[in-house]
Amino acid sequence: MLRISAFRLLGCIRYSRISLPQESGPRHYGSCPLDAHDEVRDGRAYFTTPIFYVNAAPHIGHLYSALLADALCRHRRLRVPVAAATRFSTGTDEHGLKIQQAAATAGLAPAELCDRVSAQFQQLFREAGIASTDFIRTTEARHRLAVQHFWEVLKARGLLYKGLYEGWYCASDECFLPEAKITWQQGPSGDACPVSLESGHPVSWTKEENYIFRLSHFREPLRQWLRDDPQAVIPEPFYHAVLQWLEEELPDLSVSRKSSHLHWGIPVPGDDSQTIYVWLDALVNYLTVIGYPDAEFKSWWPVTSHIIGKDILKFHAIYWPALLLGAGMSLPHRIYVHSHWTVCGQKMSKSLGNVVDPRTCLERYTVDGFRYFLLRQGVPNWDCDYYDEKVVKLLDSELADALGGLLNRCTAKRINPSGTYPAFCTACFPSKSGLVGPLVRAQEEDYALVSAVTALPQQVMVKGGNDQCSRDLKLDLVISPRLHKRTSQRRC
After folding, report:
1. Terminal CA-to-CA distance of the chain, rounded, Å?
2. If you ran DSSP here, which 8-state letter would residue 19 be given?
3. Antiparallel, parallel or unpaired: β 86-93 and 134-137
4. Which one of 35, 132, 271, 392 has the largest count of C-beta atoms within 10 Å of its C-beta?
């Protein structure tokens, strides 16, 4: 059984037993400077999550994306402790055929569905401690202005033309697919139905006169961008996936739909018969947040890091950079990619009834406990599996036992009579090892532990600051099994 009392004890210790010394001015954590590639525009950084579709309630995959961005942002704020130097945006994607259909199914107006589900995302992120500086909704007036201005820039640069576009369209994925990405599966009626080879979602043949973006012009510039910056997309397997896509021809991209078919969206400027493609609409949110099209956005855009799921990699690493180049803009600083969460070995889906409610998890395992679990167990390179027993086992062993036990021992009166951090009792814990005295309790293992903790900021910089969001940034950076075993044996 999960030892919730251990978390409550940690909370009590944090606020009552450990007293922090008074300091003047901002407190700096860590012992190393910023990476050279981060020292741009007066140390600013801008982190973004995807904006999440409001066709259904949030699940743990949405929370995981937000937590990764939140962790990167918090780490950055520790290194650059000036509030104005870091921005972090998240939000909801509220346009498109998928939303239009979900609202009709629910018997709601699209705006009503958007308000309802967006509020659920905002509440979840507040309860989970997601410290974003902006929550953007694509139905906001500021976003419509930004999208239509971006469209006009592409048009003025000769990159949009009207033409007949036909192909397989997937409403669930909001994209056209080539014939090679289609397969046929048996449907509910027993007939063979076309579906997306990648997502398994149904597709239908669509033929429309739309506006088309000259995506084919940007294949070589995109390849050059990736060759020049191997860290542009990380982890490495996803970087190579993008390069592999760019080995193939890059057809021009439909960037509008007939408004008679899709009315829930932003109209094409000067042509109300067309609605702007939902992905172009959604991607511009990253610019809307920082003030586009006003000049102020330029001080933030060069230092942008996107945190995304692997299912939307092509939109962020091919379509979005191409659109930005087309608009004469620089490309994102980093694209961090993560994999998905399965449940007991199966993909989460409403049809299987196995979607995990993150708010229930936060209540059951505590906010800090569930945040720790997702960040500890999540691995960007491959999918991670969720089941309740795994959460209980991890939190018991690492928080209640390992970290909680270590904290209690380190603040025990025998070794730390004043219960004060960060100062040690110099009589019990001299500044140098090898000293003896009637009150000395510190041993070589204790000094080794202090040394490991002192080196932690540098290790985080190497593994985290160099964009390796991986298992390595875990508890084992602080406590080796040998040290923890030794501390347990001593029972301070």
Report:
1. 26
2. B
3. parallel
4. 132
Across the chain, which has 492 residues, the per-10-residue mean pLDDT values are: 39 32 32 37 86 95 96 88 86 94 94 98 97 97 98 98 87 79 82 84 88 97 97 96 96 94 95 96 98 94 95 97 98 96 87 89 96 92 93 94 83 76 76 84 85 80 52 42 45 38
> Is-contact 380 71, C-beta < 8 A?
no
d(CA 267, CA 148): 8
SS3 231: coil
Distances (CA, A) of 373 to 60, 91, 354, 399, 447: 11, 23, 19, 10, 29
Backbone angles phi, psi at 174, to 5 degrees: 55, 50
Give the CA distances from residue 63 to residues 87, 130, 132, 172, in Å, rounded to whole numbers and listed in that order. 18, 9, 13, 20
Smallest CA-to-CA distance from 144 within 273, 272, 279, 281 is with 281
- Determine contact, residues 124/58, Cβ cutoff 8 Å: yes
Whole-angstrom Cα distance, residue 5 to residue 200? 44
DSSP string, 34-97: PPGGG--GGG-EEEEEEEEESSS---HHHHHHHHHHHHHHHHHHHHS--GGGEEEEEEEE--SH
